[in-house]
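Entry, Tuesday afternoon. Goal for today is a structural model of the target with calcium ion bound, before we commit to ordering more compound. Inputs were pasted exactly as handed over by J.K., no edits. I checked the ligand SMILES twice against the vendor sheet because last time a stereocentre got dropped in transcription.
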Amino acid sequence: MALKIVRFLIHSSICLAFTIGGIAAAQTGDQIEILIDDGDPGYVETSADNAWATWNNGDAIGNSYRYLSHYSEGRIRKGTARWTTIIPEMGGYEVSVHFRQTENRTTDADYVIVDGNGVTHEFVIDQKHSPTGWYPLGVFNWDQGQPASVLLDGTDDNQSDEADAVRWRKGFSPTIPPDESDPEPEPEPIPEPDPPVLPTILPLLLESKE
Ligand SMILES: [Ca+2]
Ligand SMILES: [Ca+2]
């Protein structure tokens, strides 16, 4: 299971500590990062068939994640996971989700965000084939004190969704998803072939006509 705190990572020497609903937090004047892992306060699961299970792996945030599991024959892999925070300062936050790629994961991980204006945004990520890492879903605006959540809705099929971590960032450079940040290397250019050697018979023919 993951760390039991909501972590605000600080990227400046100037730091102001405060609390949100009893959760320790901090911010700088220009950068805020909120990270909620599975098992942290703010992480909630539902499953009619108790299908969520824990897997430990060093590639996961907090070295573990939750996933919808068969456990035994007949168990239906349906459930939801939700990560929720309270926005500490109004503005636009980049929201990213993290998962570890494995062969057993879903090809249809449905994430849902409702922004501060009540507008719903839906995303589908192929956790089976997309590389492990942070995937930005976009930048969304909230007012200070509004709850902001990411829902992973695994109730539409019987695949194995993975719930690892979610983060909100304000004032950072945009996140580059791992399938774009580690592109295939450019192939070596093929050298131009040497020009063909012209036969020397033509001058000889011309000479013979003179
Ligand atoms: Ca799905
Ligand atoms: Ca985790």
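The chain has a mean pLDDT of 83.
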